[in-house]
Amino acid sequence: MNTQIEISVKINGKQYSAAAEPRLLLSDFLRHELGLTGTHVGCEHGVCGACTVLLNGEAVRSCLMFAVQADGQDLLTVEGLAAANGDLHPLQAAFREAHALQCGFCTPGFLMSLLPFLQDKPDASEEEIRAALSGNLCRCTGYQNIVKAVKMLLEESNSDPA
Amino acid sequence: MATRYFGKPIKRNEDPRLLKGQALFVDDVNLPDMLHVAFVRSDYAHAKIKSIDVSAAREREGVVAVYTAEDLGDYWQPGPLLVPPPPIAGLTFNQKTQVPLAKDRLKHVGEPIAVIVAASRYIAEDAAEDVIVDVEPLEAVADLESALSDEAPVIHEDLDSNLSAHVVQEKGNYAKIRAQADVLIKRRIFYDHGIAAAMENRGIVAHWNAKEQHLKIWDTTQAPIPIQNGLAAMLGLSESQVQVVAPFIGGGFGPKIMMFYPEEVLIPWISMQLQRPVKWIEDRRENFFATTHERSQIHDSEIALTRDGKVLGVQDVFLHDAGAYAPYGLTVPINSQCTLLGPYDVPNYYSEFKAVFTNKTIVTPYRGAGRQHGVFVMERLLDLAAKQLGIDRVEIRRRNYLTPDQFPHDHEIVYQDFAPLVYDSGNYQPALERAAEMIGFHDFIKNDQPAARTAGRHLGIGIVSYVEGTGIGPYEGARIKVDASGKVNVATGIGTQGQGHFTSFAQIVADQLGVTVDNVRVVTGDTCEFHWGTGTFASRGAVVAGNAIHAAAVGVRKKILKHASEHLEAAEADLVLDNGAVHVKGVPQKSVSLGELARISNPLRGAVKPGMEPGLESTDYFGPERGTTASGVHAMIVEVDPDAMMVEIKRFVVVHDCGKVINPMILEGQIHGGVAQGIGNSFYEELVYDEGGQLLNASLMDYLLPTATDVPHIETDHIETPSPLNPLGVKGAGEAGAIPVGALFAQAIEDALSDYDLEILEIPLSPNRLFELVHMQAATKQES
Amino acid sequence: MKPAPFKYFAPSTVDEVLALLAEHGFDAKILAGGQSLIPTMNFRLAQPAVLIDINRIENLFFVREEAGELRVGAMTRHRTLERSSTVSRLAPLLTETMPNIAHPQIRNRGTIGGSIAHADPAAELPATMLALRARFKLASASEARWVEASDFFIDLFMTELQPEELLTEIAVPALPKRTGFAFKEIARRHGDYALVGVAVLLAVDEENICTDANLVFMSVGNGPVVGEQAQQALLGKKASAENMDLAAAAAASEDIDPPSDMHASSDFRRHLTKVLLKEALQTAFERAQKA
Ligand SMILES: Cc1cc2nc3c(=O)[nH]c(=O)nc-3n(C[C@H](O)[C@H](O)[C@H](O)COP(=O)(O)OP(=O)(O)OC[C@H]3O[C@@H](n4cnc5c(N)ncnc54)[C@H](O)[C@@H]3O)c2cc1C
Ligand code: FES
Ligand code: FES
Fold first, then answer.
1. What's the predicted TM-score (pTM) here?
2. Is the interface score ipTM higher than 0.85?
3. C83 contact B CB<8A
4. Which of B192, B307, B345, B722 has the fewest CB neighbours in a 10 Å radius?
5. What is the pLDDT of residues A64-84, one digit of tens each?
6. What letter would DSSP give residue A9?
7. Which ligand is nearest to the CA of A101?
8. Measured between alpha carbons, how far is A40 from B25 in angstroms, rounded to an integer?
9. For residue C195, which residues of chain B lie inside 8 Å, CB to CB?
10. Domain boundary at B233, B267, B290, which?
11. Atom of ligand 3 nearest to the CA of A140
12. Could you report the per-residue pLDDT of B434-464, keeping only the tens digit for each?
């Protein structure tokens, strides 16, 4: 039963190949096989959202997928957000500006959940923002500054003609 | 000294790493050859172990070792008593601390029985299922009230009952004043506080390097230095052979300061046994059983007042659920006992508690640490008194506050830090007035509430106050050094779990040394960098470590001035530190950079003059004689839908006084987070046990943490009453947001449902519980 | 919280799946979105020896109109349903239901087939499917059959699906004229499973006499529960507030026998059922008049 299956997956634009047992969770594969430890694990039953990554552009829980299921797919993790020169992604910069993180453990999951949301709903209301955040748990911030960061970013990009 | 940074909302130094996924958390440590651990844990709340068969587990492919208590030999020892009982006359304390692996009795679900070490966590978990534990189940002690009855089974066989501790503290003479009171109000009050549920579970990686004879440990602890020293003693190593690193920690809130968790004792030992790096990462299910909780107290309380609402005294007798062991001594119930008095002038106080062993997870402090329970009792009693006497809820508080001329105020009882409960400073009324004004208390009651009621809506308002003893001793320390590059390094012993210490500490130093915040690198929680100190608890980081850092920075500044005065041939009084350099006042071309000075002060040739030390470095300590007292007022407007019993928070106001504020942005973040946890405690989170001591909701599916749609926007304001007890004038702020929220919920919901004439004397609430309370009340009314 | 080992297959056709099911039957589990199965495997509450991953079977992913009906492939993700205009045109009750299920991150993986096959009594889709009188296509290596939703849900997590069968397709009849619908639920937090929920279809004639009422409750029994007494209180009667109240009272006292658990007592669930049904009937009625 310990047969290893060859997995080839594109992550943050880079091609990775590695073998894994079928039962290996995608979250463990990213973190411990590939060393992409920015994706965090807080519950392994789909509730906390810390493990959220983008699978072909859509936010999913990496603790609720087997690594073998990612074979041939395209993933984006928190490590893929900042620019090549290290500059923060606008969403990351807004998080810093608004003090939207304290311990920072939940943060990668929030960022990855928000990315597709912001594209879908560039004119989201506070209520919609809060609903969108409700699939991720944060125990430190009380969410207020996360909401603030999102609002700041939306205002900025809406006032930016480009 | 210029204060360019102190008091400013400076963006955090630590954020870029965290935002990019590049910060090191314990589970990110991956070492070559590393082994992984899973625990076999008790499924029973109370049982006798008849036998443990690990043979199948040992044979499983990929398993390297399996240990039971028997395999530990002399290393098997009950854990240390972390906090001995304070010096209170007549106190009873039965010391019982947790063991690394259960030997013959199982005392709570989740108690570790055996350790599996394997090539992967997956295999370790497979093997854990191979272990056969044969037990004789015993009746469990699950109910706090009956735990002390004669029929209750006794958990610790060498004791005659489940009494963990019995403490009486008294001030004045309650019995006497009771006879003179106009009004006596007596109630039974129940308060249950939940679990910290930090997003990161606990974890430990230990790496014994036999060639270097060095043990390196990464631990999600709030107290790396005591872990280092304790482990060194247990393992027979010198303290300098053990390095404990508390890297980035994904939230602490109290339970991560517990020492020593069984896993903390075992993982380093296993690494030495097997001469390989070993990792254990707690999973969420384990976190519900194996990380400490806070839980319930049952109070029988009475308040005595004059006709005009002046408190004459309070009597409070309560039971406290300690769990299966009590390694943290009496900290939690003493906090309840002391914090009950709040900002009020209570001349007579009788407080008695019994802490009780139950077959449940150990109770240790979780954000608030028993203070919630005490505050709830006092605030509820005042609300009941206000109602009975027809006094406004703001007014009754106003009438009973300690006034500014009563400070320092001695409450004549002993606090958790062994010192008498003396409030250093405070000025409560301005915060109350400010909060009432911000939320529009009187206008709401006069206009908004009746208008809403006419429209068929149930709105309610609440306002409560609290104090928080913070920043207690014994001490913290720090070492600060200016590098030849001009960068400043700060090392301190406490661990940090998101409180922004990398930034707030840098602000203190930057102001002293005239550098920018991003040129100050703060290292916390690495015992190789600094090995004196205790840990992050009781909202003490900013107060105790902050002041130690301030003292060390003052020391470095002195050295800088001395060296610069020689180098620039100018009097110290004429020197200014700015922009990473020392300038002579009025002669801008005469200056030397700090980097240059650092080099000069640490010459490769020549001699360091007598009386001078090499380098621009200083180490200093701060030990407060006693804690500082922060305080505040919370106010809230809720709407209750009496059909679905759902509660919506319309507004939430916090006015807080924690003395001088280092970084208001960080402080507000702490308050937001505290309030969110308070809301969770009040309306969402509840550990549900059955009579057999089984926890029924050990998952985040069923243990409800509040989400972004449950926590409202929180409006904050600050009052500043500096502490006279430390040079920075700061007080702690870490727990304040969480403490009074239960009391606030009870009051505001009662107010919203005033048609139903409820008395809410318990926390947590829920829609289901409100439905029950309304129906019980309706039934009682019908009867009478 | 790591799953126990299993043998893994990721076939690319339905026939291969059916052959694997025929071979492994009881030992095998279908892996659809994994949003219910993988958590239970992580808790080791489920330890299937064989896992058949159907995520690579392209012709299980579809949403189309066929003979005036909505046809949905079993692997259609919750998010696809939520966003589909075909769904909102033919089965707007389904569109209204979807956002109540968990969160986008879960709905991006979770599938309609998985929700129906899993048959969680607190889940939204089984109730909605029952209200919509959907049919499910169950295929095995030897035959394929269509089963009415009303015959499909048997008991707690138990359905008509046999171990060697795969749910491949769902058929939902389009709403007739003057038929209104509503979905209402109360959950503790946004996205949680409901404490109580109701899915309602209500048809009225020109005189506002009820000609059809299909009322289904969730989280009040061992599966989705049909409100038969409540239905009787409405059929052939005027869709008035009084009759709706009577129906709601009948539902709460006669149609359901809800369990008590840590989130809600039986009494509270009865109460909520009454409250929600009234609201839902009102909404459905308003819509029916316009439809
Ligand atoms: C945090 C969280 C919150 C959630 N909240 C909700 C909620 O509020 N409401 C709700 O309804 N659901 C909720 N879910 C569950 C989610 O909707 C699931 O996606 C759904 O219940 C199952 O769908 P799935 O495709 O993920 O199925 P899987 O998990 O893959 O499978 C579930 C079961 O069905 C079987 N199965 C799947 N597909 C087929 C098929 N085609 N033929 C035969 N058998 C099959 C599997 O073998 C398995 O036994 C939640 C899940 C999580 C993790
Ligand atoms: S770890 Fe995946 S959702 Fe919590
Ligand atoms: S910042 Fe700590 S959990 Fe969100």
1. 0.97
2. yes
3. no
4. B307
5. 999 999 999 999 999 999 999
6. E
7. 3
8. 9
9. 767-768
10. B290
11. 2
12. 999 999 999 999 999 999 999 999 999 999 9
